[in-house]
Queue: 4 jobs
Job 1
Amino acid sequence: MKIFINTMLIGFGEDMAIILIIIIFLGFFFFTFAINGIRLADNIFACPNCGHHFKPKWYNMMFVPGRIFLLFNKANLKCPKCKTRDTCSIPN
Ligand SMILES: [Zn+2]
């Protein structure tokens, strides 16, 4: 890793190396959220207002914290039928 960073410093200059590190970090950050979203989108949720059952899109689930979700089996989602944002839970 140290050799890799040194090579970048010589190759692109210090500023470019910092930018590259930030891009790699953001990419990893996005990847973590995407995996979280795909994992959570694998569940069927029930709307508390109209009772409609739906499968959320993975990109809507990206910023739902996985740990909180697992603890309460609930997620704050927008219902595709009545367009209301509410706490949806997984029906038994
Ligand atoms: Zn609804």
Job 2
Amino acid sequence: MAIEFEKTTSLEILPVDKVFKDSGEYLLTCPHCSRLRGIDDEGGSIHRLKGEQYQDNLCDGWYSIADSVKVVGEVEELPNYF
Ligand SMILES: [Zn+2]
């Protein structure tokens, strides 16, 4: 039981406030592991993705698209969390 609790704590949902628009998806850096991840753009604007929650299939960390999310002009502008 203790292990389950620790896992939940470490996988806290963290906000993503910068994304980069690529063809058919948005790129972002995972706030848990900083690796570049892609999410489907759902065929619409970023506004439709606000509040959506995703789980990184690499580190199992959860993140959600912040209401204040900004679309940056260069992929290099995505934050590095380390
Ligand atoms: Zn991650």
Job 3
Amino acid sequence: MAPPSGKAFFSDEERQSLGESARLCEMIIEANPSDTGALETLKEIYTKLGDRERLALVVGRLAGLAGDRPLAGGTSTAVQSGRGPAAPASGTGPSDRRPGVMWRLGDRLVAEQLITTEQLQRALAEQRGTREKLGSILVRMSFLTEDKLLSFLSRQYSVPSVTLSHLDIDPEVLKLVPAQLAERLHVLPIKRSGNVLTLAMADPTNVLALDDVAFFTNLQIQPVVASEVAIRQATERAYGDQGSNVADMMSELEEAESDVEVVEGQDEFVGKTDVFELKESADEAPVVRLMNMILVDAIRRGASDIHLEPYEKMFRVRFRIDGVLHEIMGPPKRLEAALTSRVKIMANLDIAERRLPQDGRIKLRYHQREIDFRVSTLPTIFGEKTVMRILDKESLQLDLNKLGFDPWSLDQFTRAITSPHGMIMITGPTGSGKTTTLYSAINTINSPDINIMTAEDPVEYNLKGVNQLQVNDEIGRTFAAALRSFLRQDPDVILVGETRDLETAQIGIRAALTGHLVLTTIHTNDCPSTAARLLDMGIPPFLVSSALLLVLAQRLARKVCSDCREPYDADEESLIPYGHVPEGYGKVSFYRGKGCQTCSFTGMKGRVAIYEVMPVSQEIRDLILRNAPTGEIRDVARAQGMRSLRQNGLQKVLEGITTVEEVLRVTLS
Ligand SMILES: Nc1ncnc2c1ncn2[C@@H]1O[C@H](COP(=O)(O)OP(=O)(O)OP(=O)(O)O)[C@@H](O)[C@H]1O
Ligand SMILES: [Mg+2]
Ligand SMILES: [Zn+2]
């Protein structure tokens, strides 16, 4: 934020560091309004910066304090009233700290005869113990009209006033400041030109709010004044849905913020200066606030991952929402170390270690929900990159009927998971919903009379009544080792997080052939190529053909936003070039999202799984045994009812759930 009347005597860096010192002092004063040391320092800073408005306020507060107790001698620093003709930017003039200078809003209103002393007293009594602004109270008590208050504020602060009721705000501008932040600070972004953001504020002297928004948006802030009530109404209108339950969100946010469990760094680091500084900066209130805000914002938007990414000249925060990364903000590069350290402290990682990758966890309670963040840091050439995977148990959907199966595939899959033995393999790229499908399968078959054991890396959710084991390669507890020890524990069902090496595959297959149901994942493109993958790994064809029960391939496709979807005329035949086999629908309606608040104007919101399910029939067993080419397996599987990922995806287009573009994006032909 550039001080309104700052003179260019300083380099950007000096100005920045002065600004930061000022912020710190403001925070100290917020906690202890009578800290004269901090006020004096602030006075000096604002004098240097030539920021008359704020200087005036500080001087006012000092004067107020001086009235309470004898004035400390020797304070000859200049005092400039914010009013009157242009005060010199670096004031060294004579002191004009007259007794009786009126600084408080109420006093000034009385002085200008806008209200009476008695009205002021009544309003102040009303205000006691609340957080309501005096101005709002005066308006509410009808001592003052909204218009008069506004023009008074505008004059006092020398900033323009703005009427918000007829203002149409560009959604792009709204996006710069999240609803919760706007609501909490009583501000509303209304216009952006270049890197200047015009911000409507109830109190343009609220340095903390100015700083928070500047901090958040990385833009210079041009404050304009509006009444608190008008801002609240406009905020609710502008942010729509997001704004209407802002009260809830605020309490959630506060709750979340206070419930962030911070695990302190270990003692051994204290004393190394640079680390000490890192920790100090990471503990600074705005850093803590910003980080909490990022976490809560990510949860609220339903993000699955948060990326904090350093680049050569910038720092970027991105959220993965419905599988797609969105840029959320670009905090100033200088905050990079502080933010990264903050996350590391929260995740109980070593903040001194900046050259090796680290993994940790953050537990956050948010609105009675416990949410886990799996944190991973990785040194890149421009600094440490942090990725947080959000594991939200509550939003976990473990119902096979709701994942996106078509009836045929669901029937096949259900049969397989209720078989007494054999191997079921799930394949799909990272983040395609494999674990969710596996957990849903386990959830479906889980009952007290069967023993289910899992080896996972990592264990993402705790499943009731299931023995889950965390794989740890470093101590030799590999998937293969875990599987081996499982077999001594009399399991009925075994879940192996991932089959990525021959040994794991061998033991898994052996288990499947000796009376256990084995569920696992493997990396292949589709179902038919899975057999070939196992053979490539070195498993003999007769073992693969006799163990394999069913293969499932999956992708996640974004759904058309249900809040702004609209139909348009289409033709089933238009899907043929993409591999669709027409079923005689002819003229149909497809759906697309116009874009709205709910979907952040992308037209898409939420995801659905697209499945390809291949039961391993006798015919397919024979093909595997003969080491037949994948193409042949595919042909037979299709003849027996399997529909490809692409075909199942296009079916969802016909059902109006997703779009052709989305299906083409997530499936190969
Ligand atoms: N059928 C589904 N419908 C909607 N969202 C889903 C579905 N399945 C999974 N998701 C969501 O997609 C994200 C990734 O899912 P999941 O962790 O199951 O994928 P994965 O393939 O196991 O990922 P990884 O490769 O990282 O292990 C999660 O946020 C999950 O909630
Ligand atoms: Mg997984
Ligand atoms: Zn929408």
Job 4
Amino acid sequence: MAKLNINGKVHDVKVEADTPLLWVIREQVGLTGTKYGCGVAQCGACSVHFNGVVARSCSIQVGSVKPTDVIVTIEGLSATSTHPVQKAWAEVDVPQCGYCQSGQIMAAAALLAAKPDPSDADIDDAMTNICRCGTYQRIRDAVHTAARTAAGTRKTAAATSTFAASRAEDQS
Ligand code: FES
Ligand code: FES
């Protein structure tokens, strides 16, 4: 028995403690966006966010997960699929067969959360997920696109709050 916080919802699951988190996410919880590729932490198809850090769910045993651990899958990245990384992936038309792409998106989102303006070398270091279709160049382009979009959003938000603050000052 385990209590798992996945995408903001607590799930009580009845499984053996050594069951990989990936299987629980897919079989017990029914979130099939997270994929099985290798099962040995090599390919990254099973990537999720675990307490804000990208992790390979095929290699996490459910028995080691605490109820306070926060797990986010591709389905929980954005309620409306409008996370900057998801938008960039669509804009750049990254996927080919698509199988590896939810893992790639989760890895890219974690990278940008830690490093908002990554270099090509940063991307290559952080994005170790395997794509058998060879979409690596488009993945790189899309990460840069997402970084630019997110920077633009931050700039707009900062300008709006500066404007609001100066208006409030004028009216006081
Ligand atoms: S299935 Fe987990 S890394 Fe390949
Ligand atoms: S898009 Fe086919 S494996 Fe990556």
